[in-house]
Amino acid sequence: MNSNPFFAQYLAYPYMLIADKGQVLASNLAEYDLTSILEVQNADSLTSLENWQNGFNEPFKQTLLPLWQRLITEPTKLQLDGDVAIGHGVISFILRRLASKSASLLVFKLNHHHLRSLQQTATLNNSDLLAKQQGLEGKITSVQLDLTRSIHTLEALQEELRTTSEELMASNEELVASNEELHVMNEELVRLNNLHAKKFEELVSVHQYYHQALAAYDMPILILDESLNINRFTTAVKSLFALEENDIGRPLADINCYLEVANFVELVKQSTIDGQSIVELVDKKQHSWLVTLNKNNIQPGWILTFVETTHLEQKRTLQGLLDALPQHIAILSNKGTILYTNRAWRRFALANGIKDLSYTGVGDDYLHACRVSDDYPDPSARRCYWQLKSLLNDKLDNFSLIYPCHSPFEHRWFNLQVIRVSGLSKIKAIVSHHNLSASLTELRE
Predict the structure, then answer these.
(1) If you average pLDDT over residues 363-374, what whole number do you get?
(2) Which of 33, 132, 158, 166 is 20 to 30 A from 176 via CA?
(3) By mean pLDDT, which of 75-84, 98-107, 228-237, 419-428 is the weakest?
(4) The CATH number of the domain where 371 resides is what?
């Protein structure tokens, strides 16, 4: 190798002898300490193309490799020169083809002075790099501390979020339970609402029926609240009080009363206190009224009921007068129905075997009783039926006849007198049976 003049010329420089297949046949790079300048990772391992291609720095590889590949692929090329940037400097190199060796010689044009300059530059670069590295390491340490603090903060936040999430889940479960309870309560409220609606409809129906019944009722009724204010009243009560529909809600004391009483309201108040529920009063027309006070069972208040007793007193008076007469007397309607009988009439019927007073009691058809008697051959019975019918039809004013009514023990004769009554709506005729048996016996003697 030393016999080659070219090779011998550059022995004083750093070189590499590279086979065409890429093996490093010889090298003195380590002697010149070019490993740090060229940034060779491991000079001892530069024994193959793959190793030394991967061992040099990027700028050197990008310059050298294309030239080397060109040199071995073009036989006409014997030598190629180039430069490569190293740090703040430039290294020139020669790539010589040695055909006899089937190799190429790579020579770096460096003397010792240039080499020291590059080494110093590399050292300075390394110092800068070290300072930068230390600064970066400090920044990295600071960033790591910040990251550690951030991680701790994030962990604390994550723990808070986990706690908050658990609380939210618990709250959500409570809300779900509350929602279910509200749903059940809503169903119950809907059921109660439907029930109340049904009850309300029933109350409205009862109220309408109650109102219609009051409107159609012919008896004077006055309904008061607890404060004795007008609540409801029937039309018939207007004959006793000066009431109109717009008087509902007004105090009873403000309503004019037609009853002959000094202070009707005070009388009602006293009745509510002492419990006296029945009072007899007289109105300005001298009609008698029985006033009944009862508690309202539908709503708080009182119900005043007025019953006219004038006709009852008249009826009792009439009945007393009839019972005082000795004749057998009955009062008939325009249809021939018995309205009244006196004591003598009833005694005679019972004494003659008519225990239930059939055909002869109040409410019986006396004309029908005479018509049944028409089936008998007694001409007086037939005459009584036809004459009574004529009198009820306003064709006769009165008639009389004497008829026999014998018993198993004696012969009896009675005088029947019937008088038509005018001017009364219900009473049409007065029938009188007088026993003539004793008088006729005296006349015969």
Answers:
(1) 75
(2) 158
(3) 75-84
(4) 3.30.450.20
